[in-house]
Amino acid sequence: MNNNTASILILVFLAVTFIQSGYDKIFYWKDNVNWLKEHFSKTQLKNKVPLALFNILVLELISGILCIVGCIQLFLNSGREFGLYGAIFSCITLIMLLFGQRLAKDYDGARTIAIYFIPAIMGVYWLN
């Protein structure tokens, strides 16, 4: 059995999380922008929602792709570079999402993001 099973499972979890989220943003862009404009209507982001959403989309896709490549690399030759970068980008993406939720005073949403941060930071730790 591969010695990297836990790391691979965390990377799969992060890849599914971010690829699915990116897919949702791409194919339901208008719905996401409309919902987020309301969500951030009382914040400094109220006039920057499409740009902020695009930035998050790019980070999510980078995170997800790096995690997929990291899984493949770990499985094939136990290389850790791409998985580590995927976990780091996942943490950065989650911190940006957390910042947005806190800014919008959505503390339940922020708490949910903190839950996702736990496996992401575990991935950074294990792959470092």
From TrEMBL:
Record's bilayer topology term: Multi-pass membrane protein
Keyword annotations: Membrane, Transmembrane, Transmembrane helix
One GO CC annotation: membrane
Organism domain of life: Bacteria
Name this polypeptide is given: DoxX family membrane protein
Compartment(s): Membrane
InterPro entries linked to this entry: DoxX (IPR032808)
Record-linked Pfam families: DoxX
Record field: transmembrane: 6-28, 49-76, 82-100, 109-127
Chief place of localization: membrane
